[in-house]
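dumping this here before i forget
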Amino acid sequence: MNPSLNYWNKIRNIGYHTDLSLYDMKVLNNINSASFIFILVSFLYAVLNFFQERALLTGINFSITLNLVAVLVLNHYRKYNFAKIVLLYFNALSLSLSGFIYKNQSELYLLSILIAIALIYRNKITQIVSSIILSAIFLAIKFVPYPFEVDLPVTQDRTILNVFGGLCCLIYIMMLQYNTQISMNKKIQHQHLLLQKNNENMKKILSIIAHDVRAPLGSIQNLLFLYKEKIISKEIGTDTFESINDRLTNLDSTLVDLLNWSSTSLRRSQAIPQDINLQEAIDHLCLFQKSQFENKNLNI
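structure:
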């Protein structure tokens, strides 16, 4: 595997655990990948604003960088809910300050956060409350002037850059959601095919078990009927019950073997060849089929 791709997969899977559902796993992958990318972006903005002597905006950008780093750390320790709060709401606060003070079109990033909240949280109340709050902030940024003088206003070219970055952020989030949906659909289809195959295997297994169990049970039933109707004597009955006991013992062993085999088949476990005593296996099979041989006057 390409080393770069390997590192990228490690970043996406930070905090992965087998207890996660398929949906939660995809959300975790998306949060990690988005956080890592925007760590780089926000840090570059912080450096750029530092050299352009925008101290307050540098601090805001750097706080966003720290928030995103905290998201990865929290996911690493499986604090998934805290990571979501930091990613969405702490960064929303930082972006709100940036947009309200500098009027630098950061509301596009707020729109991205709003979409992310709708995708990540399935709780309707959370979605509605977050939408109302962020919409109010969005309107305040657009129509309420900042009453104090800023250290250095953002130039038009920087505003255009922010608009471009915000649009890229929106597109990236939508692409993540689209790819997640496609991946989940493929996984569901794969599981559906496996379920169908398991059902077919189960039918075959039940058919085999029914065939292998029905014959000896029929013989036992016939022997019990003969003894009940006193068609056979007590002496023969004693021998008959010993025969029944042997057959039941063999039947129990056969059922255990069949169930073990069926369990292996359903789990699609790989068979491990091993040496067996062929003579013992043949003797066991002959003993199990003894009544069938006797009915057909066969000698083994």
